[in-house]
Design brief:
Elements lengths: L2 H12 L4 E4 L12 E4 L5 E6 L3 H7 L7 H6 L7 E5 L5 H4 L8 E5 L6 E5 L12 H21 L4 E6 L2 E6 L1 E2 L5 E2 L1
Parallel strand pairs: 3-4, 4-5
Antiparallel strand pairs: 1-2, 2-3, 5-6, 7-8, 9-10
């Protein structure tokens, strides 16, 4: 399972987020977060995925991560912010982790995330407006429709553990699809 899917699964199952998206943002000045979730109280949770220490260090120089910019826009920052990194990078990242961020790693089975350091709650974080939630739900629908279009020919080839797998999609009378 990819780190993005692990993050999405954690937000959906562990944090009970009602909207979970990757590479989408309701507030465009904050860049494009890897994965976001919206809680039932309409607060934003963000997970940034880092696959190397150099990638992690470079993240600190993004405009919206700079201390002055971050403090100025504190109300638009997510309620909680996490970094998710492969297990072998955790010991290297933990000492240089910003105080405002939490840290996660894939769990032993690779299906969910394990919190190494809990992210502090940003009490100044504003709730998303209903309009922003609708916009995110629309983005989620667009993402799903794009995927459906990609699979429109009803056949998909995947490579899994060096084996090519052919998946055939069948449409049922009720309009649903089954593999």
């Amino acid at each position: 399972m990819t780190l993005e899917l692990i993050a999405m699964r954690w937000l959906w199952l562990e944090r009970k987020c009602k909207i979970v998206l990757e590479q989408r943002s309701p507030r465009y000045w904050t860049g494009h977060p890897d994965v976001i979730g919206v809680t039932t109280s309409r607060h934003l949770l963000e997970i940034e995925i880092k696959r190397s220490v150099s990638d992690f260090r470079a993240d600190a120089f993004k405009h919206h991560r700079l201390p002055a910019t971050r403090q100025f826009h504190i109300a638009e920052q997510p309620r909680q912010f996490y970094y998710l990194a492969p297990r072998d990078l955790i010991e290297k990242i933990l000492p240089i982790l910003p105080t405002w961020a939490g840290l996660m790693k894939p769990d032993g089975g690779g299906y969910s995330a394990e919190v190494v350091k809990v992210a502090p709650v940003n009490a100044a974080s504003k709730k998303l407006s209903l309009k922003e939630c609708v916009k995110l739900a629309r983005l989620m629908t667009n993402h799903m429709m794009t995927y459906a279009k990609h699979c429109e020919n009803h056949h998909q080839n995947f490579i899994y553990r060096d084996e090519q797998i052919f998946i055939d999609w069948h449409e049922h009378e009720n309009g649903t699809w089954q593999i």
